[in-house]
From TrEMBL, chains A, B:
<comment type="similarity">
    <text>Belongs to the gamma-glutamyl phosphate reductase family.</text>
</comment>
<dbReference type="Pfam" id="PF00171">
    <property type="entry name" value="Aldedh"/>
</dbReference>
<keyword id="KW-0963">Cytoplasm</keyword>
<dbReference type="GO" id="GO:0005737">
    <property type="term" value="C:cytoplasm"/>
</dbReference>
<keyword id="KW-0641">Proline biosynthesis</keyword>
<dbReference type="InterPro" id="IPR016162">
    <property type="entry name" value="Ald_DH_N"/>
</dbReference>
<keyword id="KW-0028">Amino-acid biosynthesis</keyword>
<dbReference type="InterPro" id="IPR015590">
    <property type="entry name" value="Aldehyde_DH_dom"/>
</dbReference>
<dbReference type="InterPro" id="IPR016161">
    <property type="entry name" value="Ald_DH/histidinol_DH"/>
</dbReference>
<feature type="domain" description="Aldehyde dehydrogenase">
    <location>
        <begin position="335"/>
        <end position="422"/>
    </location>
</feature>
<comment type="function">
    <text>Catalyzes the NADPH-dependent reduction of L-glutamate 5-phosphate into L-glutamate 5-semialdehyde and phosphate. The product spontaneously undergoes cyclization to form 1-pyrroline-5-carboxylate.</text>
</comment>
<dbReference type="GO" id="GO:0055129">
    <property type="term" value="P:L-proline biosynthetic process"/>
</dbReference>
<dbReference type="InterPro" id="IPR020593">
    <property type="entry name" value="G-glutamylP_reductase_CS"/>
</dbReference>
<dbReference type="InterPro" id="IPR012134">
    <property type="entry name" value="Glu-5-SA_DH"/>
</dbReference>
<feature type="domain" description="Aldehyde dehydrogenase">
    <location>
        <begin position="13"/>
        <end position="293"/>
    </location>
</feature>
<comment type="pathway">
    <text>Amino-acid biosynthesis; L-proline biosynthesis; L-glutamate 5-semialdehyde from L-glutamate: step 2/2.</text>
</comment>
<protein>
    <recommendedName>
        <fullName>Gamma-glutamyl phosphate reductase</fullName>
        <ecNumber>1.2.1.41</ecNumber>
    </recommendedName>
</protein>
Length: 431, 431
């Protein structure tokens, strides 16, 4: 362990991917019934082994706390019996969802008598790189199994023992059902080199999904030779139009900013139309202050808010850097815009393409906003916190794609498939 | 021209992409009616200017011939009045196809009263890199315009004057309809650096599609920082099962191999089940020889064919390299396999994932083959030459994707879109 050269790690990871691909051939042809039976047994086995998993997690938590991990990250790392049970319930949800494999996407008869079907098929071997979130191990394994894919996991050093204990449970259930345990395998024993090897393993790993901090995702996107789906970065905007119902707007903004600050669908920026800025900004700044949110305001917003005499106000002038920053904290950038067009241009310039919202009661302006905003999700008069596979009814999610290729927005089962065309003929040749 | 540093070219290409993106915003919101009107006028204008385009092409052809271009490539480069008219008819076909933009992919009501729509939207700015095929300029422009995308073209030095003349015609029609000519623009004036700049222009170009030789495609796939769709390489296999109707099989094989040899959906390899090899190989070898096809045979096939006493037979022992070679010529690799499983493993090892075919009358074996083969298209008792956007009823095609992400197989209008989720609420917040 740790003794291998990078080249040896690369060979080992390619071998693991090839073993996974071999096992995946059996899974690809398995009936929905059989896959669901595996998932339900995984859920039961997780609950049955919650104590052992919890003990492994307690060791990980102790080391992480000793090494100075922040409270927020420690909370993500926690995988106690209660969380194991909740995650197991997620596996049962995935079992209850429709199986995307074999679904006919398009079907037609050609003039020459051939019958042409386009059907959904698994992608093959998925690589997943994430950090210190043991529940992701289970979510990803269940989504991949249901969609007929094998998966290689790099779950990070901090959660190593928790992930090991979890994968042992999943592997035993797979074996009981006659599937190879290489279907869901970890490259964590290779440390960071395991992640680097997956990024090089073009032709062995079919798709790589990084999930975590912006730095991790950027590194994978820029360096991977395997196709990548970019996920998660969320510099999320809310635009308050002059036609907004301001009483409705306030709770949506407060929910989007403060209901949970460390997540990608939390709002980071507020753009307010100048026509309502004098009325609305003091109200919203007061509410944000009550929730402990520091404000980064542009000049126009700063003047209005500073004059409002809000107790305990924490405000700074916004810098150019603020407009592209995802705070993931109790901080919000606020800007006054003269027109909706200015808001749209600002968003399309600085957004990471995750989620934006408009608060407005005007039909035509809503239509224009939803059409012109170039992001995965546009919310109308609703909190940006709804961008979530569970909320969208997709079951658990693998991540939220902020790119345009293959998948955009929350990635559920369907996004873990590709298609295959099958042409059924009786000897047709091309004239 | 040619005086710019690579950095200047990169800046210029990014500016062009940004101009294209700006013009694309108008196109994205244009009605189907308005886009079709543009396409029909483009078709008329191409026919009306066929002479000027043909003259430009004649100059390109003269230079290409003088520089020793092969007959096959010269034929691809030819864009005379007849071909211009045929290509213009393709533009009319695209106009007649359904508009994918705005199509609702999924729609549901959430338990909290929100209405959730997933709709198709254009991708944005497409970059296209191709070689010496002027008709591709028109095909790609028409597909991109109909699907609401802007496009930057690198059409290669050999076709430069032809492409210039064609793009002038398209640009004039765009201007007549109030669209910016930057919607369909060429980076050819920067030579090869134009292609390199597009590959670096992440955040400016949304998708890059290389179409051409294997070397070109590999270079783009390996070096591009912009998302790429891999197209075209076709090491295409036909498997003749012991259950095949051999009378039906022969014309399918001959059509797949010889109807047009220089294209990606032409068959390159023939795998014959050992149970019918003694009967069938002499027949097929005789027919291939009559069509001037050189055979690369494995040991078992070589013995059978050599003993058959075929006049004019051109046969060589197959090397390991043969199994992964796309000949694009009157050559075919032939191998005897003991079982269908061996054929499937051989194909999944050596194929480029384009198209494979099975010739069989046995239901269960066909089911197994179509399920286990990991390629974009599987043909049953039909020629591999049918893998084609036109044949599939998709209209013109941008290329044939051999990758699994985003698009697989012939890429038509739908494959040139991504999706956007829109959530319509009335003040909902996340509990």
């Amino acid at each position: 362990m740790g003794e291998e050269t990078m080249n040896e790690v690369f060979e080992a990871v390619c071998d693991m991917a090839d073993d996974a691909a071999y096992a995946q051939q059996t899974l690809a042809g398995a009936s929905t019934e059989r896959k669901n039976a595996v998932l339900l047994d995984v859920a039961d086995a997780l609950v049955g082994n919650a104590e052992a998993i919890g003990e492994a997690n307690a060791s990980d938590m102790r080391d992480a706390a000793a090494s100075g991990m922040s409270e927020g990250l420690l909370d993500r790392l926690r995988f106690d019996a209660g969380r194991v049970a909740a995650t197991a319930q997620g596996v049962r949800n995935v079992a209850s969802l429709p199986d995307p494999v074999g679904e006919m996407v398009r079907g037609r008869n050609l003039p020459n008598g051939m019958r042409l079907n386009q059907v959904r098929v698994p992608i093959g071997v998925i690589g997943m790189i994430y950090e210190a979130r043991p529940n992701v191990t289970v979510d990803v394994a269940s989504l991949c199994l249901k969609s007929g894919n094998a998966v290689l996991l790099r779950g990070g050093h901090a959660a190593r023992r928790t992930n090991e204990a979890t994968l042992r449970v999943i592997g035993e259930v797979l074996a009981d059902h006659g599937f190879g345990p290489s279907l869901v395998a970890s490259v964590d024993r290779f440390g960071r080199d395991g992640a680097l090897a997956m990024m090089e393993a073009r032709g062995h790993v079919d798709l790589l999904v990084p999930r975590g901090g912006a730095g991790l995702i950027r590194a994978v996107v820029e360096n991977s030779k395997v196709p990548v789906i970019e996920t998660g970065a969320g510099n999320v905007h809310i635009y308050v139009d002059e036609t907004a119902d301001l009483d409705k707007a306030l709770p949506v903004i407060i929910n989007a900013k403060t209901q949970r600050v460390g997540v990608c669908n939390a709002a980071e920026k507020l753009l307010v139309n100048g026509a309502v800025a004098e009325d609305f900004l003091p109200v919203v700044a007061n509410a944000l202050t009550e929730h402990g949110v520091r404000i980064h305001a542009d000049e126009a917003a700063l003047t209005i808010i500073a004059n409002a005499g809000i107790d305990g106000l924490d405000i700074l002038p916004a810098t150019e850097e603020d407009w592209s920053t995802e705070y993931l904290d109790y901080e919000m950038g606020i800007k006054v815009v003269d027109t909706m067009g200015e808001a749209i241009e600002h968003i399309n310039t600085y957004s990471t393409g995750h989620t934006e919202a408009i608060l407005s009661e005007d039909y035509s302006r809503i239509e224009e906003f939803t059409r012109r905003i170039d992001s995965a999700v546009v919310m109308v008069n609703a909190s940006t916190r709804f961008t979530d596979g569970g909320m969208f009814g997709l079951g658990a999610e693998l991540g939220i794609s902020t790119q345009k290729m293959h998948a955009r927005g929350p990635m559920g089962l369907e996004e873990l498939t590709t298609t295959k065309w099958i042409g059924y003929g009786t000897g047709q040749v091309r004239p």
